[in-house]
Amino acid sequence: MTPLNVVKEKQAHIALEALRANRMAAYYVPTAAEVVPLVRSLLHEGDSIAVGGSVTLDETGVSELIRSSEYRFIDRYEAGISPEEAAQRMRQGLLADTFLTSANAITLNGELYNVDGRSNRVAAIAFGPKQVIVVAGINKLVPTLEDAITRVKTSAAPPNVERLHCQTGCAETGVCVGYKGGMTAGCRNEGRICCSYLVSAMQREKDRIKVILVGEPLGY
Ligand code: SF4
Fold first, then answer.
1. What mean pLDDT is predicted for residues 116-123?
2. If both were cysteines, with which of 16, 20, 52, 143 could 121 make a disulfide (CB 3.0 to 4.6 Å apart)?
3. How far apart are CA 186 and CA 215, in angstroms?
């Protein structure tokens, strides 16, 4: 293990303890290959499952797992469905048994930070699905919420805009046009992907949110 990896793993364990103190279940796995078996152990046969758009879920094989016949996947990505049907499935996802997503950032203080355009993802994290499973690479770990805000403006939103082909300020510049401003500073384009900002701190419902931190970089 490289010195950098040793440090990252130590920081991961600080975050795990802080997440648990905030009444979220928290797990650490060193590699992406260990994510699917852990997620499978947290699901029940027949569960209805919805997802927030996530490169991490694709990279870890979770997207493939939830399409198995064991589960009822509410698939808003199904080829050929209308935008209205996709939106309806997003609404159905708010009452799923399990919602799977990544996080834009996780702080060493045990907070999850998420920024959303359609806002179905932050809505589901906050309330609705019986459980929320968050899978995040070590690259999502930041010291504080201030760093989380910067991370989204510089490292998370711009590549997601490229991936989703959105017409936004950062699509032109490669960085949020509001990167010198506060949390909500940004472009005024209709395709903006930063519309709702959610900090998940201490939770009333213990272990409804489960965080799987992976010792490898994943997603943006
Ligand atoms: S507010 Fe606009 S420019 Fe800033 S990161 Fe979001 S989409 Fe990009």
1. 97
2. 52
3. 31
Q: Which residues contact 196 (CB under 8 A, 6 or more apart)?
A: 115, 116, 119, 122, 123
Closest listed residue to residue 150, CA positions, set 185, 109, 103: 185
Instruction: Give the model's confidence band at 24: pLDDT under 50 very low, under 70 low, under 90 confident, else very high.
Output: very high
| Predicted local confidence at residue 23, as pLDDT | 98
Residue to mutate (ligand 1; options 153, 179, 190; most atoms within 8 A of CB): 153
4 pLDDT higher than 90: no
* pLDDT tens digits, 6-17: 898 999 999 999
* Nearest Cα residue to atom 6 of ligand 1: 194
Pocket of ligand 1 (CB under 6 A): 153, 157, 161, 168-170, 176-178, 186-187, 192-194
Ligand 1 mean position, distance from CA 31 (Å): 31
Burial classification of residue 44, based on how many CB atoms lie within 10 Å of its CB (0-12 exposed, 13-18 middle, 19 or more buried): exposed
How buried is 218 (Cβ within 10 angstroms: 0-12 exposed, 13-18 middle, 19+ buried)?
A: buried
**Per-residue pLDDT tens digits for 135-166:** 999 999 999 999 999 999 999 999 999 999 99
Cα 102 to ligand 1 centroid, rounded to whole Å? 19
What are the tokens at 170?
């950062």
The answer to pTM > 0.85 is: yes
